[in-house]
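Working notes for the structural subgroup meeting. M.R. asked for a predicted model of this chain before we commit to crystallization trials. I am recording the input and output together here so anyone reviewing the notebook later can reproduce the run.

Input as submitted:
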Amino acid sequence: MREVMTKSMARNIFYGGSLFFILIFVGLTIQSHFYITGTSTTAAELTPDVAAGKRLWEKHACVNCHTILGEGAYFAPEVGNVMTRWGVAPGDHVAAAEALKAWMEAQPSGIEGRRQMPNFGLTDEEYRQIAEFLLWTDQIRTQDWPPNDAG
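Returned structure, recorded in token form:
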């Protein structure tokens, strides 16, 4: 082997390496598509109420305090599995809305030095929509995330 690399050798290494890694990227992309299909959110039906709840989640910037499925701030509790923690059955939409409304209306507590949740003044319809969104996130197969019930 030569001690000096020529321009043509460098060009061939560049093109060969680029082609190699492009093929690996395409292969992994295809593999991940087939791996993810049918294993994630497909079991949870996306309804207009779930979408409206997600929009409310974004409008009120809930992610600035809460985490959802591990994403967001760590100031307040994880809410991706909150319905399971509260003991709400997966299909019990009325109980989910009532539990969420009762919990949120109990906040803020006004205790000095305690983390405070703002009162957003939500309507019953908005509580129901956010509860639908949280029920939906609770049904996502997350491959055992969060690692414990508390999030």
